[in-house]
Design brief:
- About 50% of the residues lie in helices and about 5% in strands.
- The chain has helices at about 15, 20-25, 30-35, 55-60, 65-75, 115-145, 150-155, 160-170, 185-205, 215, 225-235, 260, 265-280, 320-325, 335-350, 360-365, 370-375, 395-405, 405-420, 440-455, 465-470, 475-495, 495-500, 515-530, 540-560, 575, 580-590, 620-625, 640-655, 660, 665-675; strands spanning about 45-50, 90-95, 245-250, 285-290, 315-320, 570-575, 595-600, 610-615, 635.
- The strands form two sheets. A five-stranded parallel sheet has the order 2-3-4-1-5. Strands 7-8-6-9 form a four-stranded mixed sheet.
- The protein is elongated.
- Mean pLDDT is about 90; it is low at about 660-665 and about 665-679.
Length: about 675
């Protein structure tokens, strides 16, 4: 099969497996070049890079790895970092791949000490040795590849004398507690570092009965060996003092799951606190980069042993990728569409298509207009959809005419009449019709389309670049996943055509809006199912999301006046939210796992008290058959309402099969009527 016949979006988790040489052509520098906060990764100071699954954290952190820098050099391309920020050396640890998290599965027994006190110290010691070894490995890669061009650019010295001087300086430092005594050769230093790491890994894999006494007596304080290594590299002249060191710690969030299988309560938190201690030293010689999913970074990052808390902007800078890429209210433009288009074009180009420029526009086109969607939902203006008794008698002729020619306009006319209640004897208005007022109409179009589809028992449809971008909600993985489903659906529908053109060049397909709609529905259901595949209280979160979907849909379907087009979200007063820690934590968990999105809410009530609002992840909108746009005011509720939603979700989960709960959007409405919202 030719390369360009492969679905370019089959590999969605590309950042985890992509080889460095492919990274060069696939990586989008958008976050680095166009987002100021992205540049913090390449400047001194500790940085927490936070985002939900698929937000782009790993892709950004990869730029700190030497093998990716080498790949750009070998490809003859500039590193996608501003030139003035390229002088750095990156190293680090992936807590999962390095088996650091395996410290939770085996006890290290020491007389007179508690496991909760000793295990985190051994954990920190392992991290120290791993990072120090990786610093040396990173420098070796930078000096041995590209004919030394990168080493020359950074000013790294490669002579044996300098390296041996470095080894001598480092080995005599007190932070090692004598473990490296007598070492004067760089080769001996590497052997000693690697030997300690291998011993730890052998023990964690149950290939050793216990940790050797030599290691027990020489445990190192977290972070100090790393800082002393950097100092020795500078003092020996191996690396210029002007070159900073950036230390990656990836998969930080995995430590939050540690106690689930270790059986040791709070052990994962103690490990997190140990890493926080390295950041809390505020050592100017080393800058840490923590990559974590939202749920991994605690609200109060405590430092091990002293119970102090890391301070934002003093101990670390927080870069929230989700916040950067999510659309801000009241802003006409946002960053994500440009990022998504660049990612799409790079995928297309990588898989051999010559028409990559503007390929996203060709692939998705403009989709379906609201008029076309209304025509799909209403093939015949039946009495079930349109009721002439709603409008004054003098309006009936116009109403029936619109129902046949423009059902969306008829639905908006109906809502305007129900809201404004014109006299029964009034004559039909002339153009411009009052329901054509720009903002009144714009705010209610999606709500009206939803009601038209429901009345005809039709599924709502999404298609086109704008719809796909909105459904992605600023998450690049969701965008790639939707494109994957659309491409696959197109390929299945055009299999004969593809087979007949085997051997010929194939352009980026232009996918029909109806095919897009089918694929987007599948993608939405895929992301709904993923909720309970995640960690934490995943099943409870999915049941709560189910309940919200039922409540929102029921409210909006029954609102024939279209008075509340914003009721696909809910709002709580902050002061009320603070009075129930359990609900606050649960809602935060839903946000941190990406099931809900939250945002500050400027209240329109007279009390002017601050509020917060929540919406479903946009990609779930097709699954629950809800408008994706957020307009007007969300549903104002109380804590008792949210508490009742949680209770109803659990009750329905007991009474019904999970697949029955959300399989039919109109059946959801019947469930809603049986369990009405608690006001």
């Amino acid at each position: 099969m030719k390369r360009h016949r492969i679905n370019p979006f089959n590999e969605t988790f590309v950042a985890e497996t992509i080889p460095p040489e492919q990274f060069v052509s696939l990586f989008s520098p958008f976050l680095v070049k166009d987002i100021p906060d992205g540049l913090a990764l390449f400047q001194p100071g500790n940085v927490i890079l936070k985002g939900v699954q698929g937000s782009g954290k790993t892709m950004l952190l990869n730029l700190l790895k030497p093998e990716y820098r080498v790949a750009y050099c070998q490809a003859g391309k500039d590193l996608p970092i501003p030139e003035q920020l390229r002088s750095f050396i990156g190293a680090g640890i992936n807590l999962t791949r390095s088996v650091a998290i395996d410290f939770g599965q085996r006890v290290i027994e020491l007389d007179h000490f508690d496991d909760m006190e000793t295990l985190p110290i051994f954990f920190g010691d392992f991290i120290n040795y791993w990072i120090v070894e990786d610093i040396l490995t990173s420098i070796d890669k930078l000096t041995s590849e590209c004919d030394g061009a990168i080493a020359q650019e950074l000013g790294i010295r490669r002579d044996e004398k300098s390296w041996n001087q470095f080894a001598t300086l480092l080995a005599r430092d007190r932070c090692w507690f004598g473990y490296l005594n007598g070492i004067k050769k760089f080769s001996k230093l590497r052997m000693k570092l690697r030997g300690r790491i291998s011993t730890y890994r052998a023990f964690l894999n149950y290939n050793l009965p216990s940790i050797p006494n030599e290691i027990r007596r020489t445990k190192t304080p977290i972070g100090e060996p790393v800082s002393q290594t950097v100092q020795a590299l500078w003092d020996s002249g191996v690396v210029p003092h002007s070159v900073p060191f950036f230390i990656r710690i990836d998969q930080y969030e995995e430590l939050t799951n540690l106690e689930d299988w270790s059986g040791k309560q709070q052990l994962g938190l103690r490990y997190l606190e140990m890493i926080n201690k390295a950041l809390g030293t505020r050592d100017p010689r080393v800058s840490y980069r923590i990559g974590t999913r939202r749920y991994g970074w605690p609200e109060r990052p405590i430092i091990f042993g002293i119970s102090s808390v890391l301070e934002l902007e003093r101990d670390y800078k927080l870069v929230d990728i989700d916040a950067i890429l999510r659309r801000k209210e009241l802003r006409r433009t946002w960053a994500f569409p440009g990022f998504a288009a660049d990612v799409f074009e790079r995928r297309i180009r990588h898989y051999g298509y010559d028409d990559a420029d503007e390929s996203l526009n060709r692939f998705l086109s403009r989709g379906l207009s609201v008029r076309q969607k209304a025509d799909i939902y209403v093939r015949e203006p039946t009495d079930r959809v349109f009721d002439s008794d709603i409008v004054p008698r003098g309006w009936a002729t116009l109403y029936n005419k619109l129902a046949k020619e423009d059902p969306l306009d008829a639905k908006l006319m109906e809502a305007w009449v129900l809201q404004n209640k014109p006299a029964k004897t009034s004559s039909a208005p002339r153009q411009p019709y009052p329901w054509h007022r720009t903002w009144w109409r714009k705010e209610r179009i999606q709500h009206a389309l939803m009601q038209l589809a429901s009345a005809n028992r039709q599924r709502m449809v999404w298609a086109g670049k704008d719809d796909v971008t909105a459904l992605s909600g600023g998450n690049i993985l969701i965008f790639v996943s939707i494109c994957q489903h659309i491409w696959s659906t197109w390929a299945s529908s055009n299999r004969d055509q593809l087979e007949a053109s085997e051997g010929e060049e194939v352009a980026t397909p232009e996918v029909d809006g109806h095919l897009q709609a089918v694929a987007i529905q599948e993608a939405s259901s895929h992301w709904y199912k993923k909720i309970k595949e995640r960690t934490g209280r995943s099943k409870q979160r999915q049941r709560f999301i189910d309940q919200l979907g039922r409540v929102f849909r029921g409210e909006m379907i029954q609102d024939r006046k279209l008075s509340y087009p914003g009721h696909n979200g809910f709002s709580l007063r902050l002061e009320d939210l603070g009075s129930d820690e359990a609900i606050l934590q649960f809602l935060n968990e839903c946000v941190n796992y990406g099931d809900l999105y939250d945002a500050p809410h400027t209240t329109k009530t007279k009390d002017r008290r601050p509020r917060k609002k929540w919406y479903l992840n946009p990609v779930l909108s097709p699954h629950f058959q809800l408008p994706v746009s957020h307009v007007k005011e969300p549903m104002y509720v109380t804590l008792s309402t949210v508490r009742k939603w949680l209770q109803d979700a659990e009750r329905l989960a007991e009474d019904l099969d999970e697949n029955e709960i959300v399989s039919d959007p109109n059946a959801q409405l019947e469930l809603f009527r049986e369990t009405p919202i608690a006001r």
